[in-house]
Amino acid sequence: MVTTLQHDVIAWYRTHARDLPWRAPGTTAWEVLLSEVMSQQTPVARVEPIWEQWRERWPTPADFARAGRDEVLRAWGRLGYPRRALRLHECAAEITRRFHGQVPDEVEDLLSLPGIGEYTARAVACFHYGRNVPVVDTNVRRVYRRAIEGRYLAGTASKKELAQVGALLPEQDGPTFSVGLMELGALVCTASSPSCTICPLQARCAWVAAGSPQPSAEEKKRRRVQKYTGTDRHARGTIMALLRGSESVTQAQIDVAWPDAAQRSRALFGLLDDGLAEQLDDGTFRLPR
């Protein structure tokens, strides 16, 4: 069954893969690393234009490491979770200092970089350098759970699941199989509305054979997407937008931008604590330099 599954996933991917710019021949390891960090919890359609701008503006880690933090945060725009941008900046400096400006090709070396976790390290090693290592994101986890175990659990991948997915890797075309699993989860085996009738694994899918059981109430609760409007994240994003649009802003301008005093205070002090903003001697605020 495993051999057939490998073949079906690879054949499906070669026919149905999206034409994403970072999959184009000639894409550098640095550009792949950028795409993976930017795409975390962010739709591809929002990532593409920013990624294109960054690869032209900062084509190497050394170029990016020389940029100012305020410059980086302005270029990040509204991709969300701007701490990722600062961690990327730290990462570029480490690549420049420790690896002579070359993104390392081994998982352990990638994991030693600031802001690079298991998924990103494995994705760069696998998708750019061709290392035959398991890469498990939410999409891969969902396909594995449904096709192999007949269920779907929420949450993040564990070491055990890395080993389970690793056991499926073929000796040949392992990276293609890995990206194929991910693409299958993104396009067909989706969380809420899977398109089972066009799935290449339908005939051997344990979840389909079990009658497509739905997640429990507890699992649905864990999967529920948190609203954004009116939250502290929304307040932080509003203040960040204000900071990106000016060299410095006054407390009065921030007060107008977000009227809820308690929430505004939490958001502003959170940005200061996270190094995403700094207060000047005159009491105004700006992006960090």
Structure write-up:
- The protein is mostly helical.
- It has three domains: 1-19 and 132-218, Endonuclease Iii, domain 2, CATH 1.10.1670; 20-128, Endonuclease III, domain 1; 232-286, Arc Repressor Mutant, subunit A (Orthogonal Bundle), CATH 1.10.10.
- The chain has helices at 2-16, 29-38, 44-57, 61-65, 69-76, 83-98, 107-111, 118-128, 138-149, 159-166, 174-187, 206-209, 217-223, 232-244, 251-257, 261-273; strands at residues 278-279, 285-286.
- A two-stranded antiparallel ribbon has the order 1-2.
- 32% of the residues are buried.
> What's the end-to-end separation, in Å?
56 Å
Strand order in the largest sheet: 1-2
SS element count, helices: 16
By CATH, the topology of the largest domain is Endonuclease III, domain 1
The percentage of residues in β strands lies in: under 5%
How many structural domains can be distinguished in the coordinates? 3
What is the radius of gyration computed over CA atoms, rounded to a whole number of angstroms? 21 Å
Reported for the largest beta sheet, the result is: 2 strands, antiparallel
Q: Examine the secondary-structure arrangement and name the CATH architecture of the largest domain.
A: Orthogonal Bundle
On the 0 to 100 scale, the average pLDDT is 93
Q: Could you name the CATH homologous superfamily of the largest domain?
A: Hypothetical protein, domain 2
CATH top level of the largest domain is: Mainly Alpha
**Apparent shape:** globular
- What is the helix/strand order? HHHHHHHHHHHHHHHHEE
Structural class of the helix and strand makeup? Answer: mainly alpha
Low-confidence stretches: none
Number of strands: 2
